Amino acid sequence: MTDAPRLDAHAALAPRLGWLLFAVALLPRLAHVWFLRDSPLTGQYVPDVSVYLYLAKKMVTGGFFFVHPMLMSPGYSLFITPVLATLGPNVPALVLLAALLDAGSAVLCAGLAVRIAPAGLEQRAGLITGLLYALCGPLLFNALLPLAEGPAIFCLLLGVTLLFRSPGGGKLRPYLGGLLFGLGCLLRPNMAPAALLLCLAWSLPGAGGLRRTRLHASARFLLAMLLALLPFMAHNLITEGRPTPFGLQGGLTFHMANFPGASGTGDSLPGITHTPYIEALEAQAEASRRVGRQLSLAESDSYWMSEGWRFFREQPGQAAAHLVKKSLLLLNEHGRDPSVDIDFCRQFSPVPGLLAMPISLCFALGAVGLWRRAGKTPEAAALAVALVWGAASVVLFLVTPRYRTVLLPLVLCFAGCAVAELPALLRLTTRQGLAPALLFLTVLGLGNIPLSALVESNSAAEEYARLGRYQFLTGHQPEARAAINAALTLSAKEQATPELELLQAMRQASLALEQAAITGRSASTNP
Q1: Model confidence at 367, in pLDDT bands (50, 70, 90)?
Q2: Residue 278, CA distances (Å) to 256, 285, 484 in order
Q3: CA-CA distance, 292 to 307, in Å (whole number)?
Q4: Which of 126, 447, 515, 519 is most buried, most CB within 10 Å of its CB?
């Protein structure tokens, strides 16, 4: 049974509540920014940051469009070009901008919850959802990295909000919504197909004038989204012969997550280092070697995509078990992220740890809310299909805490509705309440399976090694040696590898550099 259509005024977050949620969300984010002010997380410590800054510089100087190959999705580089043009490669400014946008995302998420909540509980559901968003430490941590997740969430949520508010709000809203959603897809390409799905789920239910209005708004939304993607489609068509708006490494990413023995979180392949940007070039060279001729980037991308699908064709049973494992990783309380580990980074800021809203609890509550609300309103149906598509695409590719972050706002919309309905849920008969109770306990239990039962991980050693390399390259030699020593200690039981040998050489070089600096200072003071 679906809810009756409501007036738009009843489906909007109260302005005072919106400002309150913005302030509640902004305070911990500003505290997090303050703690990070002199830490590696406001430098180029996180993988991909250097590449995004490099591509943004190309865009500012006119050396990107129709010239430079699109090895990575260009959305974040495009997003940060105004900051780069005015302040230079100022990573702290990017983190501060992400904090402001993410506080706004808390309000947008609350507004969407209002639109899918049971009648009479709209403002309560919005308040609860906004608070869940504001106080979710893992969401805060990943959204405030100087990467695409925070801006992507803001653009996607604002785009959907403008679409839902189109009926009776003028013809401009769906165009703006489509442009923003398109920018969000340039930031997180896996969400692009969700646009069509959510438009269909939102506009097809009902009949008469309201349905026609929604269909017209959806058509404008999708047209504007296409216009946002069109310049990048033309770019790739001219430079590589393929009219895709996204970076030409999706095939490599797919294969890195899908082969016999893969962890599902992104594993290095033979002959390809796990270094952003460079790995796409190495993958092109490796694919060319295997095929026996020089491949273009587009051909290399297709080759690696076919290699990933070959795993599913030749070993369907193992591939199915692999997808089950990755589904459990999606729900897992901790997860494994080769890019940056939230537990390791608590030494830089305590804020995400203090806001330890369990991810498994978010998913469990979201599952109950999805069960209760998915078909009740067109907006709820639209958010549900977007969430299902987003989850499926993450499971099919890489399952990391970073990549699932974009799904969390949609999960929290349904979680907030479930909490708002809690008194009504407690009044259900035993038979009526059995299904949501079992669903909640099942998802919560699956989310708390030990990570070690799903993947082998030495994330602390990997993070210390990354920190040691960063401190070495930025001239902080005592800190570099301390991090390298920790990495080598944690890896003591592992067999010798080129990476460990490089760390040992870097430790010796760090000591030599510091001694040379001390000798130089001594010579300058005692001529």
Answers
A1: very high
A2: 15, 11, 24
A3: 16
A4: 126
DSSP string covering 240-255, please?
A: HS---SS-TTHHHHHH
In the chain, count of helices (H) and strands (E)? Answer: 24, 0
Alpha-carbon distance of 362 to 351, in angstroms, equals 19
Q: HSE of 406 in the Cβ direction (CA atoms, 13 Å)?
A: 32
List helix spans (H) across 11-148: 15-35, 49-61, 75-87, 91-116, 122-134, 137-143
3-state secondary structure 489-507: HHCCCCCCCHHHHHHHHHH
91 token code pair: 């990573």
Rounded CA-CA distance 459/167 in Å is 49
CA–CA separation, 98 and 51 (whole Å): 18
CA distance 131 to 107: 9
Token pair of 397 as six digits? 């590719």
Dist. CA 32–CA 412, nearest whole Å = 21
Residue with tokens 């692999």: 322
194, 386 Cβ separation under 8 angstroms: yes
Give the other-Cβ count within 10 Å of 50's Cβ: 15
pLDDT digits (tens, 9 = 90+) for 281-331: 899 999 999 999 999 999 999 999 999 999 999 999 999 999 999 999 999
Look-up of token digits 């708004």: 217
Say what angle helices 192-203 and 149-164 make with each other, to 10 degrees: 20
C-alpha dihedral, 256 to 312 to 196 to 247, nearest 10°: 30
- For residue 158, give the nearest of 104, 118, 239 by alpha carbon: 104
Task: Look at residues 127, 132, 164, 113 and name the one whose alpha carbon lies nearest to residue 413.
Answer: 113
CA distances from 276 to 144, 283, 329 (A): 20, 11, 23
Cα–Cα dist 394/389, whole Å:
9
CA 338 – CA 323 distance, rounded (Å): 19
β-sheet bridge partners, residue 136:
356
Q: How far is CA 262 from CA 35, 323, 336, in A?
A: 36, 11, 13
Amino acid letter, 390? G
Residue 50 has pLDDT above 70, yes or no: yes
CA distance 123 to 372: 18
**E strand intervals along 416-494:** none
**Lookup: tokens for 137:** 């430490």
DSSP symbol at 295: P
Q: Looking at the DSSP assignment, which residues form a beta bridge with residue 356? A: 136
* Cα–Cα distance for residue pair 43/459, rounded to 1 Å: 20
